[in-house]
Design a protein that fits this description.
The complex is a heterodimer of chains A (about 750) and B (about 45).
Chain A lengths: L2 E2 L6 E4 L6 E2 L9 H12 L5 H4 L20 E3 L2 E9 L4 H12 L4 E7 L4 E6 L6 H10 L3 E4 L9 H28 L3 H22 L1 H12 L6 H21 L5 H34 L5 E5 L2 E5 L9 E4 L8 E7 L1 E4 L10 E3 L4 E2 L4 E4 L2 E7 L5 H14 L6 H27 L2 H14 L3 H20 L2 E3 L2 H7 L4 E5 H5 L5 E4 L2 H11 L5 H12 L8 E6 L3 E6 L2 E7 L4 E6 L2 E9 L6 H10 L3 E5 L4 H10 L4 E3 L4 H9 L4 E5 L5 H6 L2 E5 L4 H6 L2 E3 L5 H36 L5 H19 L1 H7 L2
Parallel strand pairs in A: 19-26, 19-28, 26-27, 28-29, 29-30
Antiparallel strand pairs in A: 1-2, 2-3, 4-5, 5-7, 5-8, 6-7, 9-10, 9-11, 11-17, 12-15, 12-17, 13-14, 13-16, 18-30, 20-25, 21-22, 22-23, 23-24, 24-25
Chain B lengths: L2 H25 L8 H5 L5
The chains are: A alpha+beta (about 750), B mainly alpha (about 45).
Chain lengths: ~750, ~45
């Protein structure tokens, strides 16, 4: 595969696997990993993938998860488990991973999903193990990782199916009964239809509505009346009334019962769908933590699981160690990358006494660290846990839940009063009929759907755009903000070195030397070379000395790359400086656009930075923001926020903790330090600032939608209850009113996604 | 019209059989992944 080098017009060669430009007239592999991947695929007879793929392969990297610790399910066909696979970029990717797995000896079945990024594999444990399967996937350039909690299949789906089936048939039968009001019907058919309806309503009221029953009983036991209680009450009243009426040979509200259960189940399913993305993201955070740790004992060093670590243990650290617990460095000096939550930041140099966070990776140096917090207590796990908790209890701050006890009491009171009045004025059967009618039309359907549907639509829409919020409450607060304060380094900028100034020739040699290094500066250099479409040369005798630099032989010269002071790297040819590369922080590509979008949304935008005022001013102007404050200490930022009303603060650093806490809503970049993530109301889990804009717009749309929904359902309930108490509602009227109100609410909630999809 | 007395129970029974089949299919995992088949059909292999 060849492409034009811009400006020169000469064809350049590319690596057959990853399509990185390589030097020379012919296509050659850029690295050993790509070569292995290519031959592996060819040997398996999967060479056609190269023709059908839509994006180049990823460069293989080794993975080091503890695969034997992954829980597997024993089935008659073999062991079975689900893996998450990162790096699936097109459907051809799922095709090739699936084939590679299937053609590995011992694999019984493999299914890879592009939509969820997961692979389900069944294998014979006698022949092959998970470690080998994972290394096969890694060898062709994808990154498999264990899934902490496999997403359970949606059990409500079957409840809904039965409810829909029953309700549809119920409506047919009751429609026939309603038609008989005009034309009359033979009594035996009437009996048949009524008993048929009861037969259909029974599984709906019991089996399909089981989640509501369970929720209501749990709520009553814990003395916490949520939305499930009025729902179960309505279902119970409807069913018992229907049963009695059928025995008496009179009209029931059984079709309304079916409609109520069906719509509420739809609401529940939408709710869990909307949260699944957030759940996946939380699982991903946890799975990025290492699965083994090296603990120092009196006899030497032993390999243990992070869950066995306890505060006080000594961790042995060396280059490449992933830190398994929050710890304090007790000996040695290290350069670490706080790559928590897969973020990338400039490496930090740590000395004895400095804190290390679980999930950081040691780049250089050796040492030992004493565990401060282990297992579930580490900052990373607490963050993952907080996200997960928010997912489990999304309606914790649901205003409808607060309304539920009042709503329930009011409904029962009105029903009792109306029933008593009619009993006294007309007759007891009429009184009972009116009381039931009140309970039926005051159905909590619309109210029960209003907030959870809105919040989950909002949370789901935001999660799909890379913003993970802790809970629905944060989403509602985010909809109220009027000012955005934004941190500079790492938030508006990349927060890691990028190449600012470099000569093509110098960059070419430097990138060749740094091709195999994982150092942030090395990555910045190779990335820039790839961006400029400069082919990476292949130096000989490559040598990397930690803390000093790299050297190698290329085109007959011995080149070396050395640090040339702050933000500068020097290239030496045969010991003489021949060029330099300047590196520095740069605003994110979409910063200008994002700031403009925030301003367009009538928000005041201010840059708050700890950096000197001139640098802050320069950057603020570069991204088009007029308001800025530089040289701020952490508590200065918090104080500024305290004076400015409803502020959304976006930051990343350790020193942003106070500001994130002080803000109405605090969002942390995923690259941020542990404390920042712990204090924040949510994470921007994707590179760039576009998710920030989506978050603000989505939260506003959610607020509008929820308010409209609550208004609608309250108006509906007030009107319907009045009509019912006045004796104007019969089963037919109820059957028309109820789905109408619910449809309004569902439509209102879907507005959030539509609002965000509109560019 | 007497045929209704037979047809209705038969229809309900048939419906119930299909509902049962659906529940079985759902439990065996046929609806776990609803997004991929749509993408998969574009892939010729």
């Amino acid at each position: 595969m060849t492409a034009e080098l811009p400006g020169e017009g000469a064809a350049i060669a590319r690596c057959p696997h990853c399509e990185a430009p390589v030097e020379g007239p012919e296509d050659r592999f850029c690295c050993h990993g790509c070569e292995t991947a290519y031959h592996l695929l060819q040997d398996m007879g999967l060479g056609e993938w190269y023709a059908k793929r839509e994006s180049p392969g990823a460069r293989p990297e080794t993975s080091d998860h503890a695969w034997n610790a992954v829980p597997v399910q024993r089935t008659p066909r073999g062991d079975c488990t689900t893996l998450a696979i990162d790096g699936l970029r097109c459907t051809s990717c799922t095709w090739v991973v699936e084939r590679v797995l299937e053609r590995t000896e011992g694999v019984q079945a493999a299914q890879v999903s592009y939509a969820t990024g997961r692979a389900k594999v069944t294998w014979d444990p006698e022949v092959v193990d998970l470690e080998r399967l994972a290394s096969r996937i890694a060898a062709i350039g994808y990154a498999p990782r264990p899934v902490d909690a496999p997403a359970p299949p949606d059990p409500l789906f079957t409840n809904l199916a039965v409810a829909v089936f029953g309700t549809a048939n119920l409506m047919l039968l009751t429609a026939a009964i309603y038609a008989s009001w005009l034309d009359g019907m033979e009594p035996r058919f009437m009996v048949l239809f009524r008993w048929g309806a009861l037969a259909l309503a029974t599984p709906i009221a019991t089996w399909s509505a089981e989640p509501f029953w369970r929720g209501a009983f749990a709520g009553i036991r814990e003395r916490r009346i949520g939305m499930d209680v009025p729902i179960a009450l309505a279902v119970g009243v409807l069913y018992v009334h229907g049963l009695v009426q059928t025995l008496r040979g009179a009209e029931a509200y059984l079709d309304s019962l079916g409609m109520l259960v069906t719509l509420l189940l739809v609401g529940r399913i939408l709710e869990s769908r909307g949260r699944r993305d957030t759940a996946d993201a939380a699982a991903a955070i946890a799975s990025r933590l290492p699965r083994t740790a090296r603990r120092r004992t009196v006899d030497g060093v032993e390999e243990v699981s992070p869950s066995d670590l306890a505060p006080g243990d000594l961790l042995e650290l060396g280059p490449g160690t992933e830190i398994a617990a929050d710890a304090t460095l007790t000996e040695g000096a290290l350069q670490v990358q706080t790559s928590m939550l897969t973020g990338e930041t400039a490496p930090r140099t740590l000395a004895v006494g400095d804190d290390l966070l679980a999930g950081s990776v040691v780049l250089e140096g050796t040492g030992a660290a004493r565990v401060v917090r282990a297992g579930e207590n580490t900052t990373a796990m607490r963050m993952a846990e907080a996200v997960r908790e928010a997912i489990d209890r999304p309606t914790v701050d649901n205003p409808a839940n607060d309304l539920a006890p009042t709503f329930t009491a009011a409904t029962i009171a009105v029903a009792a009063l109306a029933g008593a009045a009619w009993s006294w004025a007309v007759s007891i059967p009429v009184g009972v009929e009116v009381a039931v009618a009140v309970l039926v039309v005051a159905c909590p359907c619309a109210l029960g759907l209003a907030v959870p549907l809105g919040v989950s639509a909002g949370l789901g829409a935001l999660a799909r755009r890379g913003v993970l919020l802790r809970d629905g409450d944060a989403l509602l607060r985010l909809g109220e903000i009027d000012t955005v304060a934004i941190d500079k380094t790492g938030t508006l900028t990349f927060g890691e070195p990028t190449v600012l100034v470099a000569d093509d020739a110098v960059l070419r040699v430097a990138a060749g030397l740094e091709r195999a290094s994982g150092h942030p500066i090395a990555r910045a250099i190779t990335r820039e070379a790839v961006r400029r479409r400069i082919p990476l040369p292949m130096p000989q005798e490559l040598q990397e000395t930690a803390g000093v630099g790299v050297e190698g032989v290329l085109d007959g010269h011995r080149y070396a790359l050395r640090s040339g002071g702050a933000g500068r790297v020097e290239l030496l040819a045969d010991g003489v400086v021949t060029g330099s590369i300047e590196l520095g922080d740069r605003p994110r590509e979409d910063a200008v656009q994002a700031m403009a979008a925030l301003k367009a949304a009538d928000l005041g935008v201010t840059v708050l930075s700890g950096d000197v005022s001139e640098a802050t001013e320069r950057l603020a102007h570069e991204v088009g923001v007029d308001a800025f404050h530089g040289s701020l200490l952490p508590h200065d930022k918090a104080a500024w926020i305290g004076q400015h009303g409803r502020v959304l603060f976006v930051g990343d650093g350790l020193n942003d903790g106070p500001a994130l806490g002080a803000a109405h809503v605090g969002l942390a970049m995923r690259t941020g330090a542990g404390t920042a993530l712990g204090v924040a109301d949510g994470i921007i889990a994707r590179d760039g600032l576009a998710p920030l804009v989506a978050a603000v717009r989505g939260a506003r749309a959610t607020r509008t939608a929820i308010r409209a929904n609550l208004r609608r359902s309250l108006v509906y309930n007030a009107l319907a209850v009045t009509a019912a108490a006045a004796g104007l509602v019969n089963p037919l009227v109820a059957a028309i009113l109820m789905p109408f109100s619910s449809a309004l609410v569902i439509h209102g909630a879907s507005r959030v996604e539509r609002e965000l999809s509109r560019t | 019209m007497d045929i209704l007395l037979v047809l209705m129970p038969v229809a309900l029974l048939l419906g119930a059989v299909f509902a049962w089949l659906f529940v079985r299919a759902a439990r065996s995992g046929q609806f776990e992944d609803l997004d991929d088949p749509a993408i998969r059909m574009l892939q010729d292999d």
